[in-house]
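Example 9 (inverse folding). The structure is encoded as follows.
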């Protein structure tokens, strides 16, 4: 990896703070007998955001923030008989139960935890953030969590980063990259401290800081820190890896005995040795030397008809990514390579069986659900369990 140490923000980088805040806030005011409109929720977000900005600028303290955001908001609602600090406590309790992950966050952290020293850097409350990390399934993936409440300073204050590197080692500053969504705290603070910065910017805002890198999807962070996933056609020496992935794929979808699995592996291995790169093609993605995903394309020739005049079609088989590398976009890159190659093979069409969660990807690549007046049927010639 280009950067062996990764500092990563929590709210709106790994966890969807907006979704958590919305749910906790609405539940809180429903209990008060004042259900909130969408406009009122949006207004709280403005007040809350302004309070956090004021905290970053050292214009208010954390205790003042806890009081002010609910005092100001409740006053605008006309609720004068409420305790702002009590509301703040209940709001934080609701937040602590939130586990709404940004797409790709869990998979990215699992991968980074094996390849880098991964730390959380957050301006949130320590107890709330710890509970949210656990609820989201992220617990155990970080070497440390640095919450500003515990440190005593907030990002972008350089004293916050001083405290971080006092613990992880000041010799690691030039080996560290900071990933976060906030220009004013994460990126401004990281850049001023001499860190390499990567701005997570899914909404396409304008960079006013001059970040080193910018991504719109978490999975693109891997391209920044390397090594990037590379794709190539499978060769004979890859057959064992192709069979490993195919068997895992089949076992995930269909229960089978070890005897059945061994029989399938024997046939597949023999078939691939006889046919690879003639009428069946393999495609693989690698991170470094490690295979992370694969797919097969089986070309079939049969008597021509009106739907495929040249009689040549192909079926995509066993599109698979190892569990620790899923939801990071590897299958999409794999399928783009497969389809680019398929277009050189003089085929009438390519078909596949799409899992529900993959349907959108295949539609993006040009696959459709063709109309049919017929019902697909099979006559088993040996005992088969469906």
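The amino acid assigned to each position is listed next.
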């Amino acid at each position: 990896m280009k950067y062996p140490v990764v500092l990563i923000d929590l709210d709106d980088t790994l966890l969807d703070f907006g979704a958590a805040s919305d749910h906790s806030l609405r539940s809180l005011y429903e209990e008060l007998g004042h259900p909130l409109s969408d406009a009122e929720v949006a207004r709280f977000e403005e007040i809350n955001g302004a309070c956090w900005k004021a905290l970053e600028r050292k214009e208010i303290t954390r205790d003042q923030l806890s009081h002010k955001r609910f005092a100001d908001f409740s006053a605008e609602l006309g609720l004068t008989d409420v305790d702002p600090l009590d509301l703040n406590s209940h709001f934080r309790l609701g937040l602590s139960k939130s586990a709404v992950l940004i797409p790709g966050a869990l998979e990215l952290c699992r991968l980074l935890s094996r390849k880098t020293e991964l730390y959380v850097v957050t301006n949130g409350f320590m107890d709330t953030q710890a509970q949210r990390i656990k609820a989201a399934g992220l617990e155990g993936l970080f070497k440390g969590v640095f919450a500003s409440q515990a440190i005593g300073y907030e990002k972008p204050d350089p004293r916050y980063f001083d405290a971080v590197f006092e613990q992880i080692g000041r010799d690691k500053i030039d080996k560290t990259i900071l990933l976060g969504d906030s220009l004013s705290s994460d990126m401004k603070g990281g850049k001023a401290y001499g860190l390499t910065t990567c701005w997570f910017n899914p909404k396409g805002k304008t960079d006013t800081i001059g970040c080193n890198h910018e991504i719109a999807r978490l999975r693109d962070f891997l391209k920044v820190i390397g090594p990037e996933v590379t794709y190539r056609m499978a060769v004979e020496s890859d057959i064992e890896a192709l069979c490993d992935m195919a068997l895992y794929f089949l076992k995930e979808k269909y229960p089978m005995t070890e005897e059945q699995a061994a029989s399938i592996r024997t046939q597949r291995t023999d078939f691939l040795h006889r046919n690879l790169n003639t009428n069946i093609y393999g495609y693989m993605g690698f991170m470094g030397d490690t295979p992370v995903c694969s797919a097969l394309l089986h070309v079939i020739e049969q008597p021509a008809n009106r739907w495929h005049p040249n009689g040549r079609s192909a079926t995509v088989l066993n599109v698979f990514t190892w569990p620790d590398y899923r939801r990071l976009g590897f299958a999409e890159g794999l399928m783009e390579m497969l389809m680019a190659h398929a277009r050189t093979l003089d085929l009438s069409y390519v078909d596949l069986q799409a899992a529900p969660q993959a349907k959108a990807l295949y539609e993006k690549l040009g696959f459709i659900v063709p109309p049919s007046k017929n019902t697909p049927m099979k006559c088993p010639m040996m005992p088969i369990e469906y």
